[in-house]
Amino acid sequence: MEYKIANQSFYNDPSHYQGCNMISGICPFCGQSSGFKINGQKSGDTVPLKCDNCDKNVVWDFYKDLVLPVARLSSLKNIPVDIDNYYQEAIDCIAALSPNGAATLFRKLIHQVGIHYNVAKINDNTSLMGIVEKLESEGHINKKLVEALRRVKDLGNDGAHVNENEPDMDQIYLVKSLIDSFLQATVLQDSNIEKYDKSKEIKK
Length: 204
Ligand SMILES: [Zn+2]
Description:
By secondary structure, this protein is of the alpha+beta class. The chain contains six helices and six strands; from the N terminus they run ββββββαααααα. The chain has helices spanning 81-95, 99-116, 128-137, 143-160, 169-185, 187-203, and strands at 4-5, 21-26, 33-38, 46-51, 57-61, 66-68.
């Protein structure tokens, strides 16, 4: 979650900013894009801030450029429940700043979409890319999405195994956006086409 810092010189004298917006971004409590004002004394690398919109307090770690609690990312709606379980759990992991958890859940989500389209089963022996290729050959996704999912799989492997590549939060935000494109082009598109067709039937 990106926050815009009003003025870098804050690091030298936070008291100077009493009454001014220190940062702006999404509030973890009200979910609105808001300004945040200093609301107390700096302590170590953190300073208490108050949301302009809902008046709730957050803590800004200006060393890590992080607002706590972490705002929950916006999520797609109307996803089939079996898929949505993994999707929502991944978003919970992101809010808890757990990149390994989110990376492995996004990987599982791809498998679950494969089950949804009958190209995979539970405990499938087919590799995840094998499932992705079946999704492509049966016309559910195009080549660009295959490449997107290859990256989600790659980070999911890093999330599940101890190796030299530990997933970081910036990678997770990218992968979340790839997964959103995948879900929009598949299950959400199906559901919107179905809704449109029903709307035509009603008019008849
Ligand atoms: Zn707020």
